[in-house]
Design brief:
Length: 142
């Protein structure tokens, strides 16, 4: 990475499209089955959740950016927080196995916060992102 360049990781467009399609489908089901109050309640809750997730992906698709000065991470629903390299305590990958699930999360720890990002957030393997962050941080420590 050259001076002045920036690396960005974002939610893959295919995942955003699937969330939007699912939100539209559930919303359409609400219209079709509006006569059933129980279904309306459950489908309404699902539609609200799916629409919120899809909207977040559309409003703030970039979850992590890095350059020579530090990181920018998504904060809250769709905000961003700038973190200088001197504020970053650790960058690591947390892997856990529970039942049949294997999860990997990129953890970026600062003095006052812990930022967790998955491969779904980054559009890349978390190990690859961590390796690239290690390399970039090492270049700035010189």
């Amino acid at each position: 990475m050259e001076a002045g360049s920036q690396r960005r990781w974002r939610v893959p467009p295919g995942h955003v499209a699937v969330k939007c399609a699912a939100a539209a489908a559930v919303t359409a089901l609400i219209v079709l089955y509006s006569h059933d109050p129980q279904f309306l309640f459950l489908a309404g809750a699902a539609a609200i959740g799916l629409n919120a997730l899809a909207l977040r992906d559309l409003v703030a698709p970039v979850r992590l950016a890095a350059d020579g000065d530090g990181l920018t991470v998504v904060a809250g629903y769709a905000g961003h927080r700038r973190i200088g390299w001197d504020e970053v305590r650790t960058i690591r990958v947390d892997e856990r196995r529970r039942l049949l699930l294997h999860t990997r999360m990129l953890e970026i720890e600062t003095a006052d916060d812990l930022h967790l990002l998955s491969a779904f957030d980054l559009g890349s393997d978390v190990h690859d992102v961590a390796d690239e962050l290690y390399r970039l941080r090492a270049r700035t420590d010189r």
